[in-house]
Structures are given as C-alpha cells and as structure tokens.
Amino acid sequence: MFYVVDGEVEFKMESAKHTATKGAFINIPLGGAVHCFKNTSNSVAHLLCTVVPAGLDKFFEEIGKPVEAGKFLPPPDLKPEDLQKLKTIAEKYGQQLFPPDYLG
C-alpha cells in the first residue's frame, strides 16, 4: 500500500496507469501485481509504504542506503553488475525485478 504524503507520483500496473497526488492511496493487490512508480514532476514527492505481511522491510534495508533526515539522493546510475546484485537480493526475498520499460 502506498500513501502519497506530498507531491505527485505516477503509478503503473499491468491493468492501469494513474497519477497519484497528495492524499492519494494506492493499493497493490494481494500477490503483489507487477507495479512501478516514478516522480514525474519537478517537486519532491514523499510516499508512505506499508507491506502486509511484514518481511520486505529486510529487503529494503539490504538494498537501501541510509541518509540524513531531509537529505535526498539522486537516482543511481546502475551498471549491469549493480542490476545483477539487486536482482539476486530481490530473489532472496521472493521478489522479481522487471526492466524499466516493462509496463510501457
């Protein structure tokens, strides 16, 4: 589940595409439908993500990079070896990764 705390984010699933703005709530169906999201605006967006049942928190801890409160990192420039490492970690947690253009 995603809640848009602030900003605007484009969400895509195989069945739909939607621009979610502040206050919007996006639910990913049980089973984790293929989905992606991207901030397509020029402003910072804040999302609150809740995963039920728990367990994916360890995945995010393993792939994430801690930063100071209020600091934002630019999107990483992922090399093929970075993508392979990310794919391996995702599979460890029962997740699948898809190419950025998978949902069009």
Order of helices and strands: EEEEEEHH
Report Rg: 14 Å
| Spans where pLDDT lies below 50 across 5 or more residues | none
CA distance, first residue to last residue? 22 Å
Number of helices, counting only DSSP H or I runs of 4 residues or more: 2
Portion in beta strands: 25-35%
Strand tally, please?
A: 6
From the spread of the alpha carbons, the general shape counts as globular
Number of domains: 2
Overall SS class: alpha+beta
**Average pLDDT score:** 90
Provide the helix percentage. Answer: 10-25%
Spatial strand arrangement across the major sheet: 4-1-6
The major β-sheet equals:
3 strands, antiparallel
Task: Explain the overall architecture.
With 104 residues, the protein is α+β, with helices and mostly antiparallel strands. The protein folds into two domains: 1-50, no CATH class; 57-104, no CATH class. The protein contains two helices and six strands, in the order E-E-E-E-E-E-H-H. The strands form two sheets. The chain has a three-stranded antiparallel sheet, with no helix packed on it. Strands 3-2-5 form a three-stranded antiparallel sheet, with no helix packed on it. It is globular and about 35 Å long. The two termini are 22 Å apart. 3% of the residues are buried.
Question: Secondary structure elements and their pairing?
Answer:
Layout: E1 2-6, E2 8-13, E3 16-21, E4 25-26, E5 35-38, E6 46-49, H1 56-63, H2 80-92
Antiparallel strand pairs: 1-4, 1-6, 2-3, 2-5
Brief overview:
The protein is of the alpha+beta class. It is built from 2 helices and 6 strands; from the N terminus they run ββββββαα. The strands form 2 sheets. Strands 4-1-6 form a 3-stranded antiparallel beta sheet, with no helix packed on it. A 3-stranded antiparallel beta sheet has the order 3-2-5, with no helix packed on it.
